[in-house]
Amino acid sequence: MPPTTRKSTRGAGPASGAKQSTLSFNHRVTKPVSKAGKDTPVKPTPPTVEIPVVVVEKQQDDNSRATTPSTTAELISPITKTSLLEREKSEAELKAAKISDAAVRRYWEGIESSRRAKEVHKKHGEGLTVGEKVLRYFDVSSQYGPCIGITRLKRWKRAERLGLNPPIEVLAALIKEEERVDGQAERAHMDELMSSTAVGAV
Amino acid sequence: MVTLDEVDGLLQKSLGETPVTVERAPSIYKPLHSFALTKDRQYQQQFADIYFLRLTKIKPSVEEVASEAWEDTVVGGEKARKVERVLDVRQGELCWVAGTVYVDMPMKPNILEDVSKDRWISAPTTVDHYYSEDGRDSIMLEDDSGRIKLVGSILKDFFMVTGCIIAVMGTENANGEFEVLDLKFADLPPQPERWDLSKKPKAKDEDTEMTDSPTPGQGTKIAIASGLEFSGTDASYAVELNLLLEYLLGEALDPSTQKELCQISRLIIAGNSIATDKKAGAEDNKEKKTHKKYGYDSSSYNPVPSQLFDEFLSELLPSMPVTLLPGVLDPANASYPQQPIHAAMFPKSRGYTVMPGATEPGWLDTVTNPWEGEIEGWKVLGTGGQNLDDVFKYVDSDDRLGMMEAMCRWRCCAPTAPDTLWAYPFQEDEPFVLKECPHLYFVGCQPQFGTKVIEGPNGQVVRLIAVPSFAETKEIVLVDSETLNVSRVKISTGLGGV
Questions:
Q1: Which of B122, B280, B298, B328 is the most exposed place for a label (fewest CB within 10 A)?
Q2: Chain B residue whose CA is closest to A156
């Protein structure tokens, strides 16, 4: 017999306590509306979680920059995977944004020239840009910790916080790669290989 | 009309003197929330980050100590060189390197073995000790480049557990093993001054000396108890628990003892306040159909222990502030660091806690395990016992105070996390590393009382206390807040011989 009242089906509430990413209906811009009405309060999050705090900052920015492209950018990327476009707040990132492509290429050539042996498997590196090569080199640099299970940006920031001096060119390459392919350069390539599930796997 | 004076044998007129009220000493208290985890924490990350964070944080200090010690050592005509990575060690070359210790023990619970035998265990199997008697254990040094096996007679002189950071000097022998000639730890971290975080109370001037209340910082005491283990089934120590309550409240004692007792400004309960029913396990063997609703068997839950503990607290709290650390038997999360016991467990004592998010701690302060804070100006680090019990399983020794000392000198209060001690996979910061040396380090739920004072190379002084479990020993510990001297109070009922 189907449940007579709606209340009995709500018993599953506590079991589904895990937070699921929800669609954000707060910024569905279907017609030009003044931003003041759209200022939905984001729930206060603890300061250790980086990403939601950034969304709050972004909303404060919305009051000053009432432009639709920025809101559509928010529309596309859900809160859990904000693109780096929105996070140009920290000092290191601002500095890294100033570093040119040529500087990144020079950094990479510096690394390559310090190696005694030439590149053996050139064909594997053919489809990769210099930026992606710099990032993959950063991934396997074990002095900054394991690259699995952490985004490249968080790993860079953590290395800087611990005083390991990760090269700023890596952050520049990361920002540029994020602009090129939205979201694909976020995690280490090895991370994607290790956590991918094969078709037909149990 | 008959006045009260004329009537004998009934009510007595009061003697005219107002009874002297003794006031309890106030407690100057500031908890730190170093071990608090956020509510929406992720569990997707790997545990390797913990080891990386620990090594990165402690390695500079270890290397400093090591280079100071081994800078000019010449052994057999060869000078010791520093190598950056563990794998850079060359055969026959005298060198020193720093890394994390990994102890490979066949008796350690091994998840790979369980998976291969197709046995999914829900709770970790508890073994008495992990070390094997016949020397099958091997100690290795590891860092992000690789591992190398350590041999040498000097290794037996030190406690070695997985996760401590050391620097070793020696050479690689023909078997590919590293022969250790000397070993160094990071030793005690810098110690802050007393009254680093909280404000020191001003010295009393003569006008206020008339009151009886003792001033803070002048001989006040901190009481530490653990293993109260309120139980619904085991009543062997219930009388002592009641007597403990009366002792702390100062009831049923004469005024001179009460004067001493009002010096106790705070009670810290270091774990295991609520015992699990031991009989419940035996009944599971019978295949009786348990009535399951909402996914758990409600008949196996016994609310009596937490009710008893709540009553104890609610009677004690009006008089004394309490800091409550969870232990391994308490209703808090199973992995380290344990989060504070939820206030919903204490319906009567709940009024003494503060709302979550308040800045000032409440009269009843439920805190994490391990816990850091400042009491009467002294920096205090306390745990509920799981870290020491786990280290105890690694080494063949009874010297628990020596292990506590080793943990301070390794600068890590839970080195075996996450290897054999379940821990949260920290990714940003590892809080078990001691950044500052505490003045007082206590570990609860130990089988016996023990205390020791250790000293560091830069004048650090730490008082170590192994707090005994009340259910076993019926003892609590009193710490003097000026001198950090420790005294033990045993509550016994004197029913021997019957």
A1: B122
A2: B428
Residue B44 at interface with chain A, using a CB cutoff of 8 Å: yes
Whole-angstrom distance, CA of residue B337 vs CA of residue A32 = 50
Angle B387-B389-B391 (CA atoms, 0-180°, nearest 5)?
A: 70
Decide: B52 and B59 in contact? Cβ < 8 Å: no
Q: CA B106 → CA B95, B151, B157, distances in Å? A: 30, 18, 22
The bridge status of strand B322-325 relative to strand B364-366 is: parallel
CA dihedral A29→A31→A34→A40, nearest 10 degrees, is -30
- B4-11+20-40+217-277+302-490 carries CATH number 3.40.720.10: no
Name which residue leads in pLDDT, B478 or B213.
Answer: B478
Q: Using CA atoms, how far apart are residues A148 and A144, in angstroms rounded to an integer?
A: 12
- CA proximity to B173, closest of B93, B116, B227, B105: B93
Residue B232 has which token pair? Answer: 């619904």
Per the structure block, which two tokens stand in for B435? 């950044």
Q: Do B427 and A150 touch (CB under 8 A)?
A: yes
- Rounded distance between C-alpha atoms, residue B48 and residue B426, angstroms: 9
Torsion angle, alpha carbons of B404, B406, B412, B413, to 10: -10
> pLDDT confidence of A76, banded at 50, 70, 90?
very low
What average pLDDT score do residues B163-174 get?
91
One-letter amino acid for residue A144 of the chain: Y
B438-460, pLDDT tens digit by residue?
Answer: 999 999 999 999 999 999 998 99
Which comes out higher in pLDDT, residue B102 or B25? Answer: B102
Query: What are the tens digits of pLDDT across the range B270-322?
Result: 988 888 765 444 444 444 455 556 666 666 777 888 888 999 999 999 888 99
pLDDT digits (tens, 9 = 90+) for B21-53: 777 888 888 888 888 888 888 888 888 899 999
Task: Answer whether B45 sits within 8 Å of A149, measured CB to CB.
Answer: yes
| B378 has pLDDT over 80 | yes
* Residues of B in Cβ contact (< 8 Å) with A143: 144
Peptide bond into B337 cis (omega under 30): yes
pLDDT in tens, B314-352: 999 988 899 999 998 888 888 889 999 988 888 988 888
List the structure tokens of A49: 């979680």
Indicate the domain borders of chain B: 4-11+20-40+217-277+302-490, 48-184
What is the number of residues in chain B? 498
The model's pLDDT over B64-84, given as tens digits with 9 standing for 90+, comes to 999 888 888 888 778 888 888
Report, at the CATH architecture level, how domain B48-184 is classified. Answer: Beta Barrel (2.40)
Structure-token pair, residue A109: 């050539």
Facing residue for A19 by CB, picked from B40, B48, B53: B40
Give ipTM to 2 decimals: 0.79
Helix H or strand E encompassing B461: strand B461-468
**Cβ–Cβ under 8 Å, residues B424 and B37:** yes
Task: Please classify residue B437 by burial: count the beta carbons closer than 10 Å to its beta carbon, then call 0-12 exposed, 13-18 middle and 19+ buried.
Answer: buried
CA distance A143 to chain B (A): 7
Spell out which residues of chain A touch residue B45, defining contact as CB-CB under 8 Å. 149-150
Alpha-carbon gap: B361 to the closest alpha carbon of chain A (Å) = 19
Cα–Cα distance measured from residue B402 to residue B424, given in angstroms and rounded to the nearest whole number: 27
Global model pTM greater than 0.80 = no
CB contact, 8 Å: B298 with chain A?
A: no
